[in-house]
Specification:
Elements: E1 6-11, E2 15-21, H1 24-30, E3 37-39, H2 42-51, E4 56-60, H3 62-72, E5 77-80, H4 87-98, E6 101-103, E7 115-121, E8 127-132, H5 146-150, E9 152-158, H6 165-180, E10 184-188, H7 192-207, E11 213-217, H8 218-225, H9 230-238, E12 243-247, E13 253-257, E14 260-264, H10 278-291, H11 296-310, H12 322-330
Length: 331
């Protein structure tokens, strides 16, 4: 087996976060679900975008956030995701390349437009999110560069993208390519509602030995196993995947790899500002350590440090020097 060119290649939603401050009155006027996340269609997305004030636009998406964190830690990463030939598609491509992640999936012509999450931030700091999934849901298997996937030590898949049929077929093919090349497959469950819809698929992938590293939080673990007891759920899944990583918010996280168990407490944070992206950045720290052959304890600690940085400010992309933080805390 050849030496990998990339530490991780990820497949996920290509979404641009559009954030703008607003007054409480605008939330009422637009009939938004204050403090929540709502899926919207193209027409509603255009209406809301037009109503926003001056906005900050930065590429997002769960797997893309993870890669941004990994790149900040010095890992070599590539991203596969679908944007449209439009302004926000160009924003996404620029931003992810600017942080050092390779991205060359061809943009898609015509409608729907690039996915975006329109985020209204009220004076109290609360975020009201409205997500239009757009072009990200139409990633075809033909967009995969199979030689590139085979050149990555780890293929990382975002559970959110399992929902639509076209990218689900693409990810199934990517798993085949990675396994044929002797590479590892990592999977993040993303959200309990995804497991509710596709849990049978995920359980089958585990039973067939196609997932090497699984990331879940405690709620997703319960949805996946049907076990309300955390430890019972851990035992059930750990018997099926070589590496299980389960996060528990303020209660820290555990990992079990080939029967070895390690735990880490949550890193202290002066003030939790925004928990968006905490799981994504935890995965970034863990995967970077794993790709480097670090101990299970150090992988978890790297994840906790990255997650703590991201929840200390708005937005799901790191603002501090993650490599320096890890070095300072762990040496």
């Amino acid at each position: 087996m050849s030496e990998p060119r990339y530490d991780v290649i990820a497949i996920g939603n290509a979404i641009v976060d559009v954030m703008a401050p607003c007054q409480d009155e605008l939330i009422e006027e637009l009939g938004l679900n204050r403090g929540g996340m709502t899926l919207v269609d193209a027409a509603r997305a255009e209406q809301l975008y037009a109503a926003m004030g001056p906005a900050k636009e930065i590429s997002g998406g769960s797997a893309a956030n993870t890669l941004a964190g990994m790149a900040a830690l010095g890992a070599q990463c590539g991203f596969i995701g679908q944007v449209a030939e439009d302004q926000l598609g160009a924003v996404f491509a620029h931003d992810i390349r600017a942080v050092g992640v390779d991205f060359d999936t061809p943009a898609r012509a015509g409608n729907p437009p690039t996915a975006r999450c329109l985020i209204f931030v009220t004076p109290d700091g609360e975020r009201t999110m409205n997500t239009f999934l757009g072009a990200s849901q139409f990633l075809p298997p033909t967009a995969l560069k199979e030689k590139v996937i085979a050149s990555a030590a780890i293929l990382y898949l975002e559970g959110y993208l399992w929902d639509p049929e076209e990218p689900r077929r693409a990810m199934r093919r990517a798993i085949e390519v990675a396994r044929e090349a002797g590479r590892k497959v990592a999977f993040t469950a993303s959200e309990s509602f995804v497991i509710d819809r596709h849990g049978d698929d995920f359980r089958a992938l585990m039973a067939e030995g196609k997932i090497d590293i699984l990331f879940v939080n405690e709620h997703e673990l319960a949805s996946l196993t049907g076990q309300s007891d955390f430890e019972a759920g851990v035992a059930q899944v750990a018997a099926q995947v070589p590496v299980l990583v389960a996060t528990r918010s303020a209660a820290g996280a555990i990992a079990i790899a080939h029967g070895e168990r390690a735990e880490v407490a949550a890193e202290p944070v002066e003030r939790v500002v925004d928990t968006t992206g905490a799981g994504d950045l935890f995965a970034a720290g863990f995967l970077t350590g794993h790709a480097r052959g670090e101990s299970l304890e150090r992988c978890l600690a790297m994840g906790a440090i990255c997650a703590a940085e991201i929840i200390s400010h708005y937005g799901a992309r790191p603002e501090a020097d993650l490599a320096a933080l890890v070095e300072d805390r762990l040496g």
